[in-house]
Amino acid sequence: MAAKKQLNPMLKLVLDIGPLVLFFAANAKLGIFAATGAFMVAVLIALAVAYAMIGCIEVMPLVTAVIVLVFGSLTLVLHDELFIKLKPTIIYLLFGGTLLGGLALGKPLLGVLFDPMFHLSEEGWRKLTWRWVLFFFALAIANEVIWRTQTTDFWVSFKLFGVVPLTFLFGALQMPLINKYSIERKE
Fold first, then answer.
1. Distance separating alpha carbons of residues 84 and 149, to the nearest angstrom
2. Model pTM?
3. Which of 24, 135, 150, 159 is geometrically suited to a Cys-Cys bond with 154, CB 3.0 to 4.6 A?
4. Residue ranges of the alpha helices (H) in the chain?
5. How is 150-180 classified by DSSP, letter by letter?
6. Of 127, 135, 130, the residue nearest 179 (C-alpha)
7. How crowded is residue 88: how many other Cβ atoms within 10 Å of its Cβ?
8. Which residues are CB-contacts of 87 (< 8 A; sequence separation ≥ 6)?
9. 1 falls in which pLDDT band (50, 70, 90)?
């Protein structure tokens, strides 16, 4: 069986974070509504580029794009920034809840997503999945607290300068667990 094509890691990073950077810049210059429109277009462009490069669209970016388009559209049509502010909470709860559901069914879903990169024992996948479940739920709570108590500009800045570095840091902090439960792939 042919190996599934993968995006270059740097291109993947640009496609994942690029729309958020554009959202931040557009908000600073044009306000939340123009930023929301720019974000929606950028997410679609990122999906199109990924599809053109590897011939498929991965599940997480697709789910994120659908939620961005739905909540972005509600934001623009109803001219109410509440919807774009709720979008991260919905995404974090959806990802955390999906991972939790997989655990409840005895199938750590991170293993399905990341097995091509990391080869962990079942216990390792279970522990790593629990950590990501808790992290996603913590991000959902943080998003709710911040958008409800801070200005829109602060909330937008937190999404780029808070959530992105926290996610990278959290991922890096998982390396000891990954190393501990890593197993050799049988060919």
1. 16
2. 0.85
3. 150
4. 9-30, 32-54, 59-78, 82-104, 109-114, 122-149, 152-158, 164-173, 175-181
5. S-HHHHHHHIIIIIHHHHHHHHHHTHHHHHH
6. 127
7. 24
8. 67, 68, 71, 72
9. very low
